[in-house]
Amino acid sequence: LVIFDDQLSPSQLRHLEEVIPVKIIDRTALILDIFAQRAMSREGKIQVELAQLKYMLPRLAGQGTALSRMGGGGGIGTRRGPGETKLETDRRHIRERISELEKEINTVQANRQVQRAPRKKNAVPLAALVGYTNSGKSTLFNALTDAGVLAEDRLFATLDPIVRKFTLPDEREILLADTVGFIQKLPHELVAAFRGTLEEARYADVLIHVADVSHPQLIEQCAAVNEVLGEIGIGDKPIIMVFNKIDRLPSGLLLERLKRDFPGSVAISAQTGAGLDEFKRVLNERGLPKRIAVDLLIPYKEAGIIAEIRDSSSNQVEQEEYLAEGIRVKALMEQPDLGRVRRFVTETRD
């Protein structure tokens, strides 16, 4: 077996197979194989198979075992049409299978949009964990949400988008999404096929970039993540930089330098819990809209507005006082919610 740490073109692969009498795979094929082993959900398996087929299609010529090497491939037949060669038959069936899988992916996308609608209606903020593979995103996700998500010391342990709710120090709720880990030279086939997983990051209000501070290629990994974020069009979103696995550092000298180079970053150990309180505080300040303290005088006939304020996870009623002229309410409210109660505001406070 020979593995190339880069993507080979179809012609390069064919020429190499002519002179090297062993199996040859490139970086993209290796990553796709790993993804095929990690995919657990129906959506994950569809995404992997789609990526494999798109990668394999231009590389079929001269590969008699091409189809058998794919992790997916369910539904691909071998019956030939009139006058078709074996290669033409394989290509036709792969194109048909790609079309089927893309329809399935579109259906999944539509269903996720329906699931996302209540979140938009309730205006619950969304933060998405992004980072290099094996940086500890799932461990952090579990530490914050008690979700019990698989968190293993291996590449691409998370392939499916997972969203859970948790409460911040000021008692506001926020949604947290765990996403697939990135990697240097991430194959374009994967970026396209895993758009469903990356979609949560696209809709997020803030990104949490988790980096393994103990890794010798820390800076290169951070650059690779930023490159992928730019490629999928979300490089300009607000980002909180989180340096994870500080429990593996022999000293604090590196952290001091990173604090200077990355102002506003947070150092944590998702495994031990060190630094999580500081991280929550920063997320509270930078991941959510600022709340304004207001005094309201609400007529009794409009008293239902108080329940509406209470029902919103982004607002907080601090005090109610029943007076002859109405109900005096002290509350913390986000700017977008003030419009519907502005006529009752008597004072705003810092």
Number of helices, counting only DSSP H or I runs of 4 residues or more: 11
**Fold-level CATH name of the largest domain:** Rossmann fold
Number of domains: 3
Shape: elongated
Task: Name the CATH homologous superfamily of the largest domain.
Answer: P-loop containing nucleotide triphosphate hydrolases
- So, CATH architecture of the largest domain? 3-Layer(aba) Sandwich
* Poorly predicted sequence stretches spanning 5 or more consecutive residues: 64-75
Work out the number of β strands. Answer: 12
Rg from Cα: 26 Å
CATH class of the largest domain: Alpha Beta
Strand order of the largest sheet: 4-5-3-6-7-8
Average pLDDT metric: 83
The major pleated sheet works out as: 6 strands, mixed
What share of residues are in beta strands?
15-25%
**Structural class from helices and strands?**
alpha/beta
Helix content: 40-55%
Give the SSE order as H and E letters: EHEHHHEHEEHHEHEHEHEHEEE
User: What distance lies between the first and last C-alpha atoms, to the nearest angstrom?
Assistant: 66 Å
